[in-house]
Amino acid sequence: MSTYETITVTHPQDHTVLVTLNRPEVANAMNTQMGLDLLAVFDGFCAAPNKQRCVVLTGAGAKAFCAGGDLKQRNGMTDEQWQDQHLIFERMVRAIIACPVPVIAAVNGAAYAGGMEISLACDFIYAADHARFALTEVTLGIMPGAGGTQNLPRAVGPRRAKEILLTGKPFTVQQAYDWGMVNRICKADTLVAEALETAAAIAANAPISTRQVKHAVNYGMNMDLQSGMMFEIEVYNRMVPTEDRREGIRAFNEKRKPVYKGR
């Protein structure tokens, strides 16, 4: 297994990868190396989707999921250095979004700026009951540039998103849940366990099916309904000739749990 400087990658249960942002001394703030580490690990998931069936992404420590970009590292950067670093962050977020297997964010604390953008790049979010969220970029003379202006409106609607984006004000996990951004609020000490439980349920299903569902939703959201329906059938037909489709029907009729192999 590869080792990384700013993240840890473990396999806590069958078919599931747990990725942990591991700079708790600075609230898991993203420096250049964290961007490179996350890019490398998610590029690996994209290149070999059969090696895992679900990914859980969380942060080390009890206080923060990710505080956003490491502003101490950014202090004094030239424009060129800033843009070079940001390109790494852009590629990293795109790799998370492009990950073919489902990704669950387990937000264990504050998710601010780029940290919130990372959580929004995941397929859905479980969050600890003390978590808080904010896109604070406008208070620093910049704006979200890692998907925040695109993923947030898709999660909470454009009017709510513009309020969040334009004020830069933090909001609570209960608000995030009420607005549809967070799927489940968890006790801090059970957050990762609950995310892993859901990951296990996903991983028990046919892996081609779960990947194709994600593919259909992500691409269909950018189409009109009729085109999306047509795209859904194209995606659906990918599963008809698979061994897993035949195994699923056999297992149902034989009243047993299916054994899926991803082919």
What would you say this structure looks like, in words?
It is a single chain. 47% of the residues lie in helices and 16% in strands. It has 263 residues and is of the alpha/beta class. It has a six-stranded mixed beta sheet, with helices on both faces. A four-stranded mixed beta sheet has the order 4-6-8-9. Helix 1 (32-47) packs parallel to helix 3 (79-98) and helix 9 runs antiparallel to helix 10 (225-237). It is globular and about 65 Å long.
Question: Could you list some keywords that capture this structure?
Answer:
263 residues, alpha/beta, 2-enoyl-CoA Hydratase, Chain A, domain 1, Lyase 2-enoyl-coa Hydratase, Chain  A, domain 2, 6-stranded mixed sheet, 4-stranded mixed sheet, 11 helices
Q: Layout of helices and strands, plus pairs?
A:
Blueprint: E1 7-13, E2 16-21, H1 32-47, E3 54-59, E4 64-66, H2 71-74, H3 79-98, E5 103-107, E6 110-112, H4 114-121, E7 124-128, E8 132-134, H5 148-156, H6 158-167, E9 171-172, H7 173-178, E10 184-186, H8 191-203, H9 207-220, H10 225-237, H11 243-253
Parallel strand pairs: 2-3, 3-5, 4-6, 5-7, 6-8, 7-10
Antiparallel strand pairs: 1-2, 8-9
Helix pairs in contact: 1-3, 4-5, 5-6, 9-10
